Amino acid sequence: MRLGLVIDLDTCVGCHACAVACKQWNTSGTSGPLTDESPYGPEPSGVWFNRVRHFEVDDYPHNKTVNMPLSCMHCENAECVDVCPTGASYKRAEDGIVLVDHDKCMGCNLCAWACPYGARELDPAEGVMKKCTLCIDRIYDAALPEAERQPACVITCPARARFFGDFDDPESTVSRLVRERAGQKLLPELGYRPTNTYLPPRTAPPVPTDDVRRAQPVTGVEAWIPAPEPR
Amino acid sequence: MGTMPDFEDHAAQEVKYSTCYMCACRCGIKVTVENNRIRYIQGNPDHPVNRGVLCAKGNAGIMKQQSPARLRQPLMRKPGTERGAGEFEPVSWDEALDMLTRRLARIRASDPRKLAFFTGRDQMQALTGLWASQFGTINWAAHGGFCSVNMAAAGLYTMGHAFWEFGDPDWARSKYFMLWGVAEDHASNPIKLGIEQLKRRGAKFVAVNPVRTGYQAVADEWVSIRPGTDGLFALSMIHVLLRNDQFDRDYLLRYSNAPWLVVDTPGQKGHGLILRDEAGKPLCWDEAAGAVADASRTDIRPALFGDYTAPDGRPVRTVMTLLAERYLDPEYAPEQVSGRCGVPAEQIERLALEMAHVAFRETIEIPCRWTDAYGRQHDRFIGRPVSMHAMRGISAHSNGFQTCRAIHLLQILLGTVDVPGGHLAKAPYPKPIPPGIKPARETAPDTPLSGPPLGFPTAPEDLVIDAEGRPLRIDKAYSWDAPISPHGLMHMVITNAVKGDPYPIDTLILFMANMSWNSTMNTRGVMDMLREKGEDGEYKIPFIVVSDAFHSEMVHHADLVLPDTTYLERHDTISLLDRPISEPHAPADSIRQPVLEADRDVRPWQEVLVELAGRLGFPAFTREDGSRRYSSYQDFIIHYEKEPGIGFLAGWRGKDGDQHLRGEPNPRQWEAYADNGCFFAHHLEDHQKYYRFCNRDYLELARHAGWVGSTEPIVQQLYSEPLQRFRLAGEGLYDGPCPSSPEHRERLTRYFDPLPIWYPPLEHGRIDEQAYPFHAITQRPMFMYHAWDSQNAWLRQICSANVLYMNRARAEAMGIPDLSWVWVESHLGRMRVQVKCIEAVEPDTVWTWNAIGKQPGAWGLSTDADEGRRGFLLNHLISELLPQRGDALDGMTNSDPITGQAAWYDLRVRITPADPGEAGTWPEFEPVRPLPGAQPSPGEVRYHSHRPVRLGRSLWDVLTRRG
C-alpha cells in the first residue's frame, strides 16, 4: 500500500479548514499535544502539520491566485528518514506513511533541513520533531464509521479538494484522479518521489456567443411592438 | 499492517450533535467530548447545510471554548469611575437582574422608546424582536443595517426571496455562475461545496470583484471591476441582452410584471403607478380583445410591449416598454460604461452573450407534471441554467439597493429565478413582494407594540414618522432619510442618541455587537460619544448594557455586563420564523444543545430575555393571573405559538411528535431534535421544487406551514411601484405624506426610481475625487470572517496583523516599495499602515482584512499582541455621516438613501509614502484593562483531551530497514 493525498488546486479556495482540522485532531492525537507559543501575545506560533500558502501567478490583469496546502508528501525516497541519526524517522513498510518515533527523536532538526516541502515541525516544548501521520489514529480505527476513517483534513475540506487513498491501487479514487487530471508531483527533480499529488487548475471551455448575437441589433422598442390587431 | 494500539478510548467518549455559531451558515456539528473537554468538532455528515464539511473557524471551536477572553460573571462599572476606564466589579445575577428590571420597568411605564435594544450577530431575531415588541419599544433591530440589508431588501422587493439566506444558486444544475463581490462568509461552506460541484461539471465560474482572493482565486474568469460600479456593469449587460433580443419572453409574460400597464402622465398625481381595476388588480393590455384586462387572467394575450390608452383616457405603457427604452439607451452601451467600471467593453458584451447562450441554448427541461397557481398544467420544468450570488461587495455601497435590483433584473430577464439551474428560493421564501408586514409606529406606556418593530413599507403612509415628518425611531429607520430600511440602522444609534436627535434615550442594550470597534464607523468618534456627558454631568447615553460571551472592546464601555455562554454551552433555535437553515428543496430548522457545562457564572442571553420578560410581565410571557407562562427558554420554545400550530421549531410537533410544519406543542420536541442530529428537514416533492412563486402545490404547503398567508401567485416585480410612490412623494405628487425639506425631496426624486438605476456612491459626490483617487475596501479572511470573537489562538496564527494591499504596478509607479509605510487619508482622518504589493487587486483599489486589528488588551490578548500594535481597522477612516460640505446633508447618514445600509465600501482615500523613519501603525489606542476575575492568558498552550497513545518503531525495524 502507498497511502497519500491528492489535492485539487482547481477547487482549493485557500480557506485553511484543512490546516485547522489537522491541528484540532492531532493536538489530542497520537502526536499531540501540538504546542502553541505566545498564543495570546506577539508573534504567535505553533506546531502545524499542514499549512496553506498563497501564490500569485502572472501579472495583473492576467494574474491568478493559487492556494497551495503543504504537508508531508510521504515520499518514496524520504530523505528525512535517511538523514535521521537515531532511527526515529521511518517510513512504514505496510503503507508508506512516514512517521517519527517520539521516544527516539532527539530534536536535532536534520530531517527538517532535509525536507524540501517544509513539512516537519519541531515541538518546542518537547524537543521532538512532529509531522503529518495521515491521521494514522483515524484511518485504522475500526470503531469509527468507515466513511470517517480518513485524515481530518480530507473529511473537513469544504471545497472537496482533498482525497485520501492508496496510490498502489490503480482503481482507487486517488489513482484515477491522478490519471484523469494529469496530477503533478512537487519538485520531482529532487528525486524524492513524493506520494502526495496535486491536480492542476482546469480551464472551462469557452462559451459560444455567435448563436445569440444579432447581426442587426435592436435599437428601439419599436422592434417589439406588435402590429395592431386587424379590426 | 501490524497491530495498532487503541488510540482513542471510545467508551469514555460521548458524541453530541449541535449547530455551529462561528458565522451565519450554522452548519451541523458532531462533537466528541471526553473528560469534559472537546476531543473533536467535525461537520455533521447528514446535515443539509454542510454535509459533513467544516471551515477553519468551525474547526477552531476548541480554542473559542478555551479563550481567556470568556466573560466569567456579571459585572458593574465600579461606582465613581468613568465609563470606558475599564474598572468593573462583580455583581450577582440576582443583583444585576433586579437592577435592570427596575430600570426597564420604569422606562416601560413612562416612554418605552427610551429603551434601545440592538443586537449584533443575533441568530434569534424572532425572539429578540418579540421581546422588544412586548416591551413596547420601536427601537429594536439587529445588525442587518450595517451588513446586508440592501441584498435582503432588493430581493424581497423584486423577486420574493433574496441572495444567501433566502436563496441559493442551483449548484447541482447550474452551468454558468456569476459571483458578485466579496462573499467568503455569505455563505461559507455552502458556497465552497457549490463551487466544487460547478467545477466538477465543467460549468463556468465568473467572479466580479476588485480583488482576486478567496473564491475569486478559482474562478474561470475575473472581472476586476472598480468598487461601486457593479450596477452600471449589470445594466450594461442588460443593454447587450436587449440589443440582441435575448430575454425570456414567456417567463416575463407569465411570472413578472413586465406586461403590466404603467400610467404615463408626467408631472401629474398617479404618474408611474400601475394601472389597476376597481378592485385594485393590475391591468395589462389584451391583444386579443384590444382592451385592458386583469393581468392575472390566463385566457388573454397580454402585450409585452406597447403604448396604449386606459379606459379613463390616460396614456399607459407596459413595464417592458419602459424597461427596454431605458436600457437600450446608448448611455448603457459597454463602450460607454467601460471606463467608469474599469472593465473592457468586449468583456461586458461577451459575458452578457455567454449568459444568453447558456440560458437559451443550453436550456434544461425536467419532465414533471406540475400545476401553477393559476391552475395551468405543465408537463416539465424549464430551466435557464445561469445562476448568480452577490453579497457584501454589492451591499455595502450607498447605491447597493439599486445595484442589487439591477442584478435581479438581469436574472429575471434571463428567466433564471427559481428554475432548474438558476437561483432558487429557500423556505420560508418566496413571500409576497414585499412581505405584508408593516413596521410598528405607535408606542404607549406599559403596552406592547401592535406588531413587529420592523416591516416592509410600500408607501409613505407606512413610514415611522410623526405628523411633522420627524423620525420616531432612534436610528431614523423608516424616516425620509431611509424610507425602506427593513433592518434598521444600527450604525446610527449611538450617534443619534448622543445628539438627542430625534430624542435622548435612557438605556441602550447591545447583544453581541462590537459597536465601539470593528462594527462601527468612525471608531474614535464613537468611543468619545459613548463617554460624552451633558451639562448635568450625566452620560448622554445614561445606561449601557452589554451581553456578550467574550471581552470585546464594547464590553469595555458597558455599565452592566451580562455574560453570555459560548455556543457549546447553550440551547438555541435556528427558526423558520426568522433566519432558518433551509436548503432550496428542504425547508429546515435546527437547534443547539449544550455540549459542555459552563464552568463560569454565565447565562445564555435568550434565557435572560425570557426571565426579564417574565419579571416585566409582558403579556405574551404571562398568564392572566400575572404568573409566568414560561419557566425557561426551552419551555418557551416548546409552548409559544405564533399562530395555532406554528412555533419556533417546525419538526416533531403534535403531542406525540408525529406532526411536522404545523401541529400542537410537543413537550418532548427538544429531545426529538437531539435524537435527529439537532436539525429538521422537510423534503419537497419533485413537483414542488421549482417556480415556487407560482407553484400551486408548493404554495399550499407554504400556507399550511405558515410561510405565506395565501396561495396567490407571487409576481416578480421588474418595476417597483412602492419606489414610485416614494418618488411621487418627493415630487409632491403623492396623496399622502410628502417630505418638506428640499434635500429629502431631492433624494426621493433621484434615487427612488422604479426601474434600477446606477448613481455614483454618495461619498464620491461630496469629496474631491481627484484628491482621494483610491477606493478603499475590506474583506475578512475565510478563516476569520464572522468569527465573532477571539482572536482565536489557532486562527490568529494564520494572521495576527493586517497590511494594506496595493496593486504592484500602481505602487511602483508611485514610488511605494513593497512592505513600506504609507499614510492613508480620507475625508475623516488619516492613518499610517504598511503596504503589501500584490497583483490581485484592481489598480484604483486598495484593500485590507477587516477586524484583525484590536484594541490592545481586548479579547484576552496581551497588550503587546500584534493585533493591537500592528493590526489596524479601516473603520477609523469611515464616517457614519456623509462628508461635511456645510449643507443640509452634513448630518445625513452615510448610507444607502433607500434602505439605510451602511456604505462601508464607498470610502475614498489618498495614499502617500511615509517619511523616512516614520514607521509603525498609527493611530494607537489605549489598552483595555483586564476584567476582575479574568485568568491571565497563558504563554503557552498544549491543548489535548487525553494523554496521547504513541506509536513506536521497533528496534528490529530500526536495525533491519534503513528507511
UniProtKB/TrEMBL annotation, chain A:
Domain of life: Bacteria
PROSITE patterns with a match to the protein in the record: 4FE4S_FER_1, 4FE4S_FER_2
Short name of one Pfam family: Fer4_11
Gene3D superfamilies in the cross-refs: 3.30.70.20
Matches recorded under InterPro entries: 4Fe4S_Fe-S-bd, 4Fe4S_Fe_S_CS, ET_IronSulfur_Cluster-Binding
Keywords: 4Fe-4S, Iron, Iron-sulfur, Metal-binding
Molecular function per GO: 4 iron, 4 sulfur cluster binding; metal ion binding
Span of domain 4Fe-4S ferredoxin-type: 3-33, 62-94, 96-125
Record-given protein name: Fe-S-cluster-containing dehydrogenase component
TrEMBL record, chain B:
Obligatory cofactor(s): [4Fe-4S] cluster
GO terms for cellular component: cell envelope
Cellular localisation: Cell envelope
InterPro entries per record: Asp_de-COase-like_dom_sf (IPR009010), MoPterin_dinucl-bd_dom (IPR006657), Mopterin_OxRdtase (IPR006656), Mopterin_OxRdtase_4Fe-4S_dom (IPR006963)
Sorted UniProt keywords: 4Fe-4S, Iron, Iron-sulfur, Metal-binding, Oxidoreductase
Pfam families in the record: Molybdop_Fe4S4 (PF04879), Molybdopterin (PF00384), Molydop_binding (PF01568)
Classification via SMART domains: Molybdop_Fe4S4 (SM00926)
Gene Ontology MF: a single term: 4 iron, 4 sulfur cluster binding
Similarity-based family: Belongs to the prokaryotic molybdopterin-containing oxidoreductase family.
Protein name: Anaerobic selenocysteine-containing dehydrogenase
Organism of origin: Ectothiorhodospira mobilis
